[in-house]
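[job 0412] stage=complex_fold ligand=NAI status=START
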Amino acid sequence: MSTKLFDVVVIGGGPGGYIAAIRAAQLGMNVACIDEWKNDKGGPALGGTCTNVGCIPSKALLQSSEHYEHLNHHFADHGITADNVKIDVAKMLARKDQVVKQNNDGIVYLFKKNKVTFFHGRGSFVAAKDGGYELKAGEEVIAAKQVVIATGSNARALPGVPFDEEHILSNDGALRVGSTPKKLGLIGAGVIGLEMGSVWRRLGAEVTVLEGLPAFLGAVDESVAKEAAKVFKKQGLDIQLGVKVGEVKTSKKGVSVAYTDAKGEAKTLEVDKLIVSIGRVPNTIGLGADVVGLKLDERGAIVVDDDCKTNLPGVWAIGDVVRGPMLAHKAEEEGVAVAERMAGQHGHVNFNTVPWVIYTSPEIAWVGKTEQQLKAEGVAYKAGQFPFLANGRARALGDTTGFVKFLADAKTDEILGVHIIGPFASELISEAVVAMEFKASAEDIARICHAHPSLSEATKEAALAIDKRTLNF
Ligand code: FAD
Ligand code: NAI
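[job 0412] stage=complex_fold status=DONE, emitting structure tokens
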């Protein structure tokens, strides 16, 4: 039997890989995608980390737990009361699994629609051959003229403390906890720590987060981080900064974490479950990188140039397995750009306008530079800020926490960064991304008609604040 030859083989069916495969197929290439993720029944589960144990299930649990929180604490303000409010964690998890499955199935449909051939199993390099590559796709051997590697990342474990997913949980186990733990510990107050900490706190867990760095949310604009710290503390998240984690011991009862706090005092945290969320490591396990001489850096990430080209001819790499932020939409943009480059077009990813969102309540979202970055770079800038407290829609929603903040070039008024903490920040940030893509000035936004009453008026007002001419504050 002859080896099946494809124009492009994509290894990995996460948001980077499946989008690259679809775009390449749209551009007329004969495409295959290999993905090894298995669902609980051993079948395929396309969508990678994002769909199976990342973006999608975490947002499903954030939504369920937020409903519960509203019913318990906020609906009474609206005159709505309910007795005997209960949470059925098993049902909440089953709904989350159903949401995941809808997304898995959606990608299977998209592959059929776009005529992408799917192989379920591990993809690995066998040899460079005939100007292309021979690859294993599960049990089959196939050939590709070009290869896109989109093998993603895995959770980083504490040294010497492997995940058992029973007591010491990665993001995977954190999304499967079968009942609300009485006491939950998290190592790392990053994105996962705050999102998963919020879920289980809302459901009644006593949550302690141990963070190694002395500053909270160091990559976030300082004023937003300060506001977030205040709100999360009020909500009951115990976030301890500047700690040094020592020995972690598990027993039938739970987990004990020895640590020294910021003052150097030795302490122990006793919890039922411990989520370790201290970042992620690029995944090239079993890819056969060494067989073909694919270059990795010291972190294990695949080395690529600005166009996502690796050191091997016709081999590209995208998403979490390469440099840059580990975000699904960044992986997708790289997937589209690489497919277009393979077709001889000029795909482009603008890293300056990749938005970030933390889906806590309040949500935190930003794009572009923070105030501390502009200061460090010596850029002359103006800042404008508008609180949701002064926004009619936020008052009607009953959610007036936070603000929108604009940073613009002092001379040209070009928008350099936008930072939002507050309701629907994840949606509001899109306007800022569009504006920055079009190199808009703060005045451009200030002169655009925004619907009333809407949260987006806070964005317009923050742009007006740059010139100290807010109308409603
Ligand atoms: P992945 O999604 O990791 O996909 C890689 C795929 O390749 C996997 O299916 C894997 O099984 C497969 N694979 C690996 N090696 C092989 C091989 N040799 N052969 C065959 N298949 C292979 N990002 C956001 O933008 N927004 C969010 O809200 C968000 N929430 C998150 C929440 C959590 C809890 C976590 C952990 C992450 C979250 N992320 C979020 C990050 C996001 O999930 C990743 O940035 C994104 O999934 C990266 O996409 P990718 O395609 O590079 O890799
Ligand atoms: P993270 O990089 O966001 O945060 C890790 C935190 O752990 C940091 O604050 C770091 O200082 C701290 N830390 C590291 N080592 C430590 C140690 N030994 N002791 C104590 N603290 C320590 O990583 P996280 O939360 O694991 O998430 C991984 C990535 O997944 C994120 O960076 C992001 O790219 C992606 N993600 C995105 C989401 C979103 O877009 N909403 C949601 C969740 C994850």
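The longest helix spans residues 89-113.
[job 0412] exit 0
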